[in-house]
Model the fold of this input.
Amino acid sequence: MSENKRNTGNFIQKLNARLLSKLVLIAVMMFGFGYALVPVYKQICEITGINILTPKDISAKEISNTQIDRSREVTIEFDANTQGPWRFRPVVSSMKVHPGEMTQIVYEVVNKQAYKMDAQAIPSYAPQQASSYFKKMECFCFKQQTLEANEARQMPVVFYIDPALPKDVKTITLSYTFFEVGNKAGVAQSGQQGKT
Done:
């Protein structure tokens, strides 16, 4: 009987060792899959154009290779929407540009509150297909903006239109929605009440 117990004990130990090695292998494979998922996700986003909020750095080589198509003009219309207590607008409502030509537009923002605010601008394009041809080199939308109390600021957008833009697109609307990130109003008001 003791021999049977010993054989059974050895058999169970072998089963446990196999199970442990399988579990370790599964854990390593899961880690590898998670690690490989990041570049795969980035590639999918680039191909489908889903993640348009993340700015893509455009190298100087791409700029120098851009040729200006002087045979055509595209009208760029600028729009501004706000979600918060400030004034936000472009300095001009539209301009005509040649595809490939480096251009700059300036947006003005004024924080009308007596406290500091963090804000973010989100761009949108019309027609939607134009978004992949609208190349921004510099934009205030790339990062959050911190506006001091009653601060006025001019924020540039440097861009060009890719000459590969379909010929039937004659007008592009660039619209920004500028909204507050986090609510500092309650913090500022509670701080003022504490001082009285």
